[in-house]
């Protein structure tokens, strides 16, 4: 059996008729940029996330760069982000800010709230929370640290891997007990000042090319974003500031409108597969599962991830990856090199050992196949060969 890490052809076969109609609609209109499809998708996605506005851009990277600019964050300002969020760093750096890195949590790869507490300075203008792998992390503690700083610090959510992930809070009932009926669900992307999304093809909500969006409930920020994505124009040929071009096109928007209707269904299927993997792999060798959900003291979810990736940790990562490949199972590493150890970000002045958790994850993490169309049989095959790898290691050690 051969199992790819991701297979878009299966999804396309199921949606082909709907997608063909959507694409034909665009060609019939003859408008391919900033037309009816983009406008409709911006409204639909913002509504899904729970914000007032959505502004489509060309990529998730552009969403971060333009989003920070729209907030007025730029050169000379300090922006904090986790050291293991490799793709995020590029979008932030392009805004011209001063990057400060902090370590992440080993349990889920998200920003460590304790590290954030000591990292905030008078220069800090923004904190970028990255929902890595679709994991929600401890966003409540992060927000608390920002509030306690008593500074105006923007919270920027990099939700490129977290379409549909959410957190919940429970109001107190009259008897002082948690009232289940009063649980409030809030999608990630609607918690901070802006939420930045990517629609890269392999995302939970993916286009057939690049695409991105910034969501916000701030009318001023949304208006500025609309200008920044096209020459700084608020009206045609009336430019208020120098900017480039970063537009979500009509074809991608039409495709995404179709797919948005299936997002919750797909996320639930991802969750089912992830739960199966967890059941089969918990307690196997030195393997640890990167947690997608936050649980309260009774084991109920306070936050639910999007299950974008199913990531495990093991000190035998490279050997396991090779072993699985021999048995037809494709895997990936997200991400092998933390930001501070890349040549691109050598100018930050960090050195090896500065962020030990991020460095350990770079050596140990491995992503297993996880996509909605993965069959139960394929999931069993993957889990079975992971277990077999560790079984053989035990036998080898006993000989």
Automatic annotation (TrEMBL):
<dbReference type="Pfam" id="PF01041">
    <property type="entry name" value="DegT_DnrJ_EryC1"/>
</dbReference>
<dbReference type="InterPro" id="IPR015421">
    <property type="entry name" value="PyrdxlP-dep_Trfase_major"/>
</dbReference>
<keyword id="KW-0663">Pyridoxal phosphate</keyword>
<dbReference type="InterPro" id="IPR000653">
    <property type="entry name" value="DegT/StrS_aminotransferase"/>
</dbReference>
<dbReference type="GO" id="GO:0008483">
    <property type="term" value="F:transaminase activity"/>
</dbReference>
<dbReference type="GO" id="GO:0000271">
    <property type="term" value="P:polysaccharide biosynthetic process"/>
</dbReference>
<feature type="active site" description="Proton acceptor">
    <location>
        <position position="203"/>
    </location>
</feature>
<protein>
    <recommendedName>
        <fullName>Transcriptional regulator</fullName>
    </recommendedName>
</protein>
<dbReference type="InterPro" id="IPR015424">
    <property type="entry name" value="PyrdxlP-dep_Trfase"/>
</dbReference>
<comment type="similarity">
    <text>Belongs to the DegT/DnrJ/EryC1 family.</text>
</comment>
<dbReference type="GO" id="GO:0030170">
    <property type="term" value="F:pyridoxal phosphate binding"/>
</dbReference>
<feature type="modified residue" description="N6-(pyridoxal phosphate)lysine">
    <location>
        <position position="203"/>
    </location>
</feature>
<dbReference type="InterPro" id="IPR015422">
    <property type="entry name" value="PyrdxlP-dep_Trfase_small"/>
</dbReference>
């Amino acid at each position: 059996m051969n199992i790819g890490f991701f297979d878009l052809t299966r999804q396309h076969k199921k949606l082909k008729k709907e997608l063909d109609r959507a694409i034909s609609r665009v060609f019939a209109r003859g408008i391919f940029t900033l037309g009816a499809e983009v406008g409709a998708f911006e409204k639909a996605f913002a509504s899904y996330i729970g914000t007032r506005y959505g502004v489509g851009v060309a990529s998730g990277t552009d969403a971060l760069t333009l989003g920070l600019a729209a907030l007025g964050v730029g050169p000379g300002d300090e922006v904090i982000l986790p050291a293991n969020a490799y793709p995020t760093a590029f979008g932030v750096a392009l805004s011209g800010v001063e990057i400060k890195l902090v370590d992440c949590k080993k349990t889920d790869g998200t920003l460590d709230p304790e590290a954030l507490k000591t990292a905030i300075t008078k220069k800090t203008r923004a904190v970028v929370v990255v929902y890595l792998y679709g994991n929600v992390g401890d966003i409540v503690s992060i927000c608390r640290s920002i509030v306690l700083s008593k500074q105006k610090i923007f919270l920027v959510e990099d939700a490129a891997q977290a379409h549909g992930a959410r957190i919940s809070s429970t109001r107190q009932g009259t008897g002082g007990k948690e009232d289940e009926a009063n649980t409030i669900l809030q999608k990630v992307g609607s918690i901070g000042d802006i939420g930045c999304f990517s629609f890269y093809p392999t995302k939970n909500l993916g286009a057939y090319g690049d695409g991105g969006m910034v969501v916000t409930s701030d009318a001023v920020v949304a208006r500025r974003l609309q200008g920044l994505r096209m020459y700084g124009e608020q009206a045609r040929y009336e430019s208020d500031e120098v900017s480039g071009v970063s537009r979500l096109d009509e074809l991608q928007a039409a495709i995404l409108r179709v797919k948005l209707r299936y997002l919750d269904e797909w996320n639930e299927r991802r969750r089912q597969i992830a739960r199966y993997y967890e059941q089969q792999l918990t307690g196997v060798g030195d393997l640890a599962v990167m947690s997608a959900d936050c649980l309260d003291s009774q084991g109920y979810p306070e936050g639910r991830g999007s299950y974008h990736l199913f990531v495990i940790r093991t000190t035998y990562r490279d050997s396991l990856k090779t072993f699985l490949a021999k048995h037809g199972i494709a895997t990936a590493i997200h991400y092998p090199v933390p930001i501070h150890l890349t040549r691109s970000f050598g100018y930050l002045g960090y050195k090896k050992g500065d962020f030990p958790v991020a460095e350990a994850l770079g050596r140990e993490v491995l992503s297993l196949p996880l996509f909605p169309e993965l069959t139960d049989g394929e999931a069993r095959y993957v889990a079975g060969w992971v277990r077999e790898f560790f079984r053989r290691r035990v036998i080898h050690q006993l000989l």
